[in-house]
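Aim 2, interim progress: modelling of the guanosine-5'-diphosphate-bound target.
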Amino acid sequence: MATFGNLSARLTDTFKNLRSKGKLSAADVDGTVREIRRALLEADVALEVVKEFTAKVRERALGDEVNQALNPAQQVVQIVNEELVGILGGEQRRLQFAKNPPTVIMLAGLQGAGKTTLAGKLAKWLKGQGHTPLLVACDLQRPNAVTQLGVVAEQAGVAIYAPEPGNGVGDPVKVAKNGVAEARSKQYDFVIIDTAGRLGVDQELMQQAANIRKAVDPDEVLFVIDALIGQDAVATAKAFQEGVDFTGVVLTKLDGDQRGGAALSVRGTTGKPILFASTGEGLGDFEPFHPDRMASRILD
Ligand code: GDP
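Predicted structure of the complex, ligand included:
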C-alpha cells in the first residue's frame, strides 16, 4: 500500500516534539499546526484542503478536549487522525449495485492513469466474489487499447465485448450500448466499460465520455487518477467532475506515491468518495479504499 514516506516522517517528527511537552500552550498548538501545514503542502496536498484541515485541527486542539485530556499531545494526534479520516471520506463507501443486474461501471480518466489495468483488477476482484463481469472495450482511440483489454480479460479469466477487428474506428457509444445489451442477454451481472483517455483534459474526450454516460446510464462512473500527478490532481479531477460527473474515485499507483497528496486532495476538493486503491501493475494489486486505514498509514 502507499508508503506516504515523507508525509508520515514529517508528521511523526512533529508529534515527537509535541509529546515531550506536558500541558500545551496556544503557542505549542500553533507551532504544531504550522508544521502539519508545511508537511501537507510538501506532500502536494491542495492548498484549499490544507487550509480547511489545519483550521479544524487548530480549533479542536485549542479547545477543552485537549485542555482537559490526561495526555494532551496524544489527544492532538487523535484529532489529526480523526480529521484525516474525515478528509479521506469518513466511512468506507462500497460499490453500488444495480437493483436489476447488470451493474454498469464506467471508467474515465486520462491516458495512462491505469483504467485498462483497473478494468482487469475490478473484474478479477468481482469474479472472486462470485460475480460474472463482462469487460467492454470503448477505448477505440488508442490502436492497442482493445488488444490490451483482451489481454487483461484473459488474465482475469473474464469475458470481453469488443468491436470486430477491421470494422474501422467504430463508435464508442454504440459499443457501450451493445455491450450492456450483450451482458443483459447473456446474464452477466457486471459490465465494466473502459473508455478512451488523452494525455491532457480535452473537450472531445470529455464529450465522448459524457455521451457514453448518457447512453448507458451507469450505476457507477469511476474517475481513475494516477496518484503520482501530484498538484495536477485537483484541476484534472475538477475537469472530470464537470465533464462526466463521476460517482467515485479510484487512486492508482499508490505503490509509487511517496507524497500522498493526491489522495487527500481529490476527496477534499470534489467531495466524491474514493472507492478503490490500486497499488501495482499486477491484477491482484488492488483493494477497496478504507479512509481510516489510510489515515493510520499516514500517521504511522
Ligand atoms: P490507461 O491508459 O488509463 O488505460 O492506463 P493503463 O491501464 O494502460 O496503465 C498505464 C501504465 O500504468 C501501465 O504500464 C500499467 O501497468 C501501469 N499501472 C496501472 N496501475 C498501476 C498501479 O497501481 N501501480 C503501478 N506501479 N503501475 C500501474
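The pocket of guanosine-5'-diphosphate is lined by residues 109, 111-117, 197, 252-253, 255-256, 278-281, 285 (CB under 6 Å). The two ends are 13 Å apart (CA to CA).
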